[in-house]
Amino acid sequence: MSSARLDGLRIPDRFDIEQLMFRYAKAADMADIETQLTVFHPDCRVNFSGGVWLEGHDALRAAWESAYRRYVQTSHVVTNISITFTSTDSANTESVVTAWHRDPQGKEWTLHGRYVDTWYKSPEGWKMKTREIIAAGAVGRDESTLTMLQRLTLSDGH
After folding, report:
1. Options 3.10.450.50, 3.40.50.280, 3.40.50.300, 3.90.1170.50; which CATH number does 3-145 get?
2. Are strands 125-139 and 108-122 parallel, antiparallel or unpaired?
3. pLDDT digits over 42-66, tens only?
4. Measuring CA to CA, how many Å separate 6 from each of 2, 17, 92?
5. What's residue 154's pLDDT?
6. Domain map (residue ranges) of the chain
7. pLDDT at 133
8. Residue 20 burial class via C-beta count within 10 angstroms: exposed 0-12, middle 13-18, buried 19 and up
9. Sheet holding 90-102, edge to edge
10. Residues with pLDDT less than 70, the chain
11. Model's pTM, two decimal places?
């Protein structure tokens, strides 16, 4: 492969974004809010479910503090990361997430879905500007409060 082709792939930037996505997942499972915040731009906007957008680090911190009181264990798996660079300093990503949760009483639920993100590269490196979680489905949880993936249907409606 030619060096021009390799340069066009932006492999160092792809690596950095992927590592930040993995850092977020590990920090979520460790209930490490301060590390999670390092992934996000201070002016970020995040929609975890139902069309409610949280804005900025303070709102994220409060949401995670609440979540970590509700769940004693989680496991976030991020795969199928697709990155599209929209300019020198911005990118869109979409990835598949499976997020398992257990509360103090032992009740479990699992989200299957997608992270749809935008990223901005500052002098400090890549930071997430927006994140929206789009659910394909959930096991053990009411789906009515989730933003659900809108699938294409075949012409016969099935």
Report:
1. 3.10.450.50
2. antiparallel
3. 999 999 988 899 999 999 999 999 9
4. 6, 17, 20
5. 66
6. 3-145
7. 97
8. buried
9. 53-55, 40-47, 125-139, 108-122, 90-102, 73-87
10. 1-6, 154-158
11. 0.91
Q: What is the pLDDT of residue 121?
A: 98
* DSSP string for residues in the chain: --HHHHHHHTHHHHHHHHHHHHHHHHHHHTT-HHHHHHHEEEEEEEE-STTPEEEHHHHHHHHHHHHHHH-SEEEEEEEEEEEEEEETTEEEEEEEEEEEEE-TT--EEEEEEEEEEEEEEETTEEEEEEEEEEEEEEESS-GGGS-B------TT--
